[in-house]
Design goal:
Elements lengths: L12 H13 L5 H20 L11 H13 L4 H20 L26 H12 L1
Helix pairs in contact: 1-2, 2-4
Length: 137
């Protein structure tokens, strides 16, 4: 089985560097996007290491990812930033599947944080009437 070689592969800087090359050469993403994705994956790797969780690619679960996002929430990281981080992790695990480095994508069961919509400011009825009066005179 092709996956046996990678069964103990760790989420480390060399794997993140390979992912960066993939994003640059095959996905043609901007340097800023690549830097953000790699930074976010490094944050996740650091979180796993600090929390005593395994950094082995095949042992990372959706629970690890959900716990990571709970930590980000506790730190006050905005939902929009969390959504970008999840996007980077999803892209990373898609790459790992494509390269046959892992058999499953633990991000599949993780939902994106809801991003509140900003309702635009609108003119009041009186302000519209006032503008219309200005135009008429």
């Amino acid at each position: 089985m092709a996956f046996l070689y990678f069964c103990n592969m760790l989420l480390d800087k060399s794997l993140i560097r390979s992912f960066s090359d993939y994003l640059r050469l095959e996905q043609s993403l901007s340097d800023n996007t690549i830097e953000a994705y790699c930074h976010d994956i490094e944050l996740f790797r650091q979180y796993l290491e600090d929390s005593g969780e395994s950094c082995s690619i095949t042992e990372i679960t959706h629970h690890d990812i959900e716990d990571f996002f709970a930590k980000l929430y506790d730190l006050g990281i905005a939902a929009s930033s969390q959504a970008r981080i999840l996007s980077g992790l999803k892209s990373f695990f898609k790459y790992l599947l494509q390269e046959k480095i892992c058999e499953a994508d633990p991000t599949m069961l993780v939902s994106s944080p809801s991003i509140g919509r900003h309702i635009p400011d609108v003119l009041s009825y009186e302000e519209i009437v006032s503008m219309m009066d200005c135009i008429a005179t």
